[in-house]
Design a protein that fits this description.
This protein has 477 residues and is of the alpha/beta class. Helix content is 52%, strand content 11%. The chain has two domains: 1-86, no CATH class; 108-285 and 356-476, Rossmann fold, CATH 3.40.50.1820. Strand 5 (246-251), helix 8 (253-264) and strand 6 (269-275) form a beta-alpha-beta unit. Helix 1 (2-36) runs antiparallel to helix 3, helix 7 (222-241) crosses helix 8 (253-264) and helix 10 packs antiparallel against helix 14 (359-371). The protein is globular, with a radius of gyration of 23 Å. The N and C termini lie far apart (61 Å).
Length: 477
């Protein structure tokens, strides 16, 4: 106990010392830049731009330094070990169970209705839900939820008839979200809703909602989500729409899930769309990727079961500390209309509304994707039987007979890859590599759009220029 406590204090002290040193360097540059500035204060905006650029370069360089990255990883590991031996980790797991219940039973109702495109929860399996968005004529309708926790909605026959009437000639689209943030970023507000944009183009949209995991879910695998939740959803969508195939649409990590599913079940997929999706993880040099590749995730998961959302939010904020601490000031220094203010706070709410990441899924992403880059090499294996979702304690996951290899060469259907040119969460080069790897796809298209990772979803310019192109591509393929 004393050794663990001493190591945690030592590691955190070193981390804070390094952080202080980086901030000192940044502010030293700040004052020297102001002293050297020999232009009139009429050019204050240019000075501010220069200062922000200098800050970004200093923090980005130092945060990537191998020594700092190792200290950060050691600090997370030592505090996780301390949390385990002191019982704090177990306490967190107990609290997370209550938080998951509160989120899934109460807060989800608010998330799914407030400013959202009207939808119906048509399927519910454990904490996972499948939503179907209403047609244009019912755009002001209310959301209804399923009363079943393991089977499809009892109104299945009505939905079959409704889907036939609504979209007789439209291939249904299943939107797959990432685990790392809440699903409603694609349906944030009516004026910046990707779901509404695509729905207004006549597409029949379905979407996944992973819910909020508890500590009881910590052993669920990528294979469980792909071969149980997604596969059952695809079959159900095909049944109620009487479609032979569906379109698969994945955002960020959700794009990786879409790639995995399309490779395993190509006969069910008409076309595949990935949005800001990491592909070649060796090319992903974003700051969060650099930190993730150094993570000793075993200590973290051993203590907390799942990855706490607080850790995720801290990582997002610390990578650009000056911008994070000054964004409210910069936003309100200029007058804004009510719509802009609502959009700003809606985005901030989403950014700070991260759910925990299921422990085993996080381990698989970190080990098999970020560290070993197995997906793009066609060497990644996932659990084939959803019922066998326990961790393999001997560490020999790839010796299991009930795991199947994901071969991206099985993806022969048309493929659209949308990349954010200014993405600082997923390196554009990592995403663009997918077009080179999916050699068997007979129709590939790459769209590079000038925006950031989140700007693809909520940017006004993206909704005007990008999403009509995406919708048109889906309808033409």
């Amino acid at each position: 106990m004393y050794n663990i406590f001493g190591k945690a204090i030592s590691d955190s002290s070193q981390f804070n010392l390094d952080l202080y040193s980086i901030f000192s360097e940044a502010y030293s540059k700040y004052f020297s830049t102001i002293l050297e500035y020999n232009k009139s204060w009429k050019d204050f905006s240019e000075l501010e731009k220069t200062l922000k650029s200098n800050f970004h370069k200093i923090f980005d360089k130092n945060f990537r330094d191998k020594r700092f990255v190792n200290v950060l990883s050691d600090t997370v590991a030592s505090y996780s070990e301390l949390a385990k031996v002191t019982g704090i980790g177990k306490m967190y797991q107990n609290l997370s169970n209550k938080s998951a219940l509160w989120n899934n039973e109460f807060l989800e109702i608010i998330r799914d209705t407030l400013y959202r495109t009207p939808s119906n929860k048509i399927c519910e399996i454990e904490k996972y839900s499948l939503f179907h968005y209403n047609n244009n004529n019912d755009i002001m309708g209310a959301t209804s939820s399923s009363s079943s926790s393991t089977t499809i909605n009892k109104k299945e026959n009505n939905m079959i008839n409704q889907s036939q009437d609504e979209d007789k000639k439209t291939t249904p689209v299943l939107v797959i979200y990432a685990f790392i943030n809440r699903h409603y970023i694609l349906d944030l507000l009516p004026q910046v809703s990707v779901i509404r944009n695509l729905r207004n183009q006549g597409l029949d949209i379905f979407a996944t909602d992973w819910g909020t995991p508890s500590s009881y879910d910590k052993s669920l695998t990528i294979g469980h989500f792909v071969n149980s939740y997604i596969d059952k959803s695809v079959d159900f969508i095909k049944k109620i729409t009487k479609s032979d195939k569906i379109s698969l649409f994945g955002y960020c990590w959700g794009g990786d899930l879409a790639l995995i599913y399309a490779a395993l079940h190509p006969e069910k997929i008409k076309n595949l769309i990935t949005i800001a999706t990491p592909g070649d993880f060796n090319l992903d040099n974003s700051l969060l990727s650099v930190w993730t590749k150094s993570m000793k995730e075993g200590y973290l998961l051993d203590a907390f079961g799942n990855v706490p959302s607080m850790l995720l939010n801290t990582a997002f904020s610390i990578r650009r500390p000056i911008e994070y601490s000054h964004k409210y000031f910069h936003f309100f220094e200029q007058p804004h209309d009510l719509e802009s203010i609502v959009e700003f706070f809606a985005t901030e709410t989403w950014l700070n509304d991260s759910p925990p990441i299921i422990g085993e899924i996080y381990r698989e992403f970190v080990e098999y994707l970020y560290k070993q880059n197995l997906l793009i090499q066609n060497k990644m294996k996932i659990e084939d039987k959803s019922s066998n979702s326990n961790n393999n304690d001997d560490g020999n996951d790839y010796e299991k007979n009930d795991w199947t290899t994901v071969n991206l060469k099985n993806i022969t259907m048309p493929f659209l890859n949308v990349v954010a040119e200014k993405d600082d969460l997923v390196a554009p080069e990592s995403s663009k590599a997918l077009n080179d790897v999916l050699t068997e796809s007979y129709d590939k298209k790459l769209i590079e759009f000038k925006s950031g990772h989140v700007g693809l979803m909520i940017g006004k310019h993206a909704h005007k220029e990008l999403w009509p192109k995406v919708g048109q591509w889906i309808k033409m393929h």
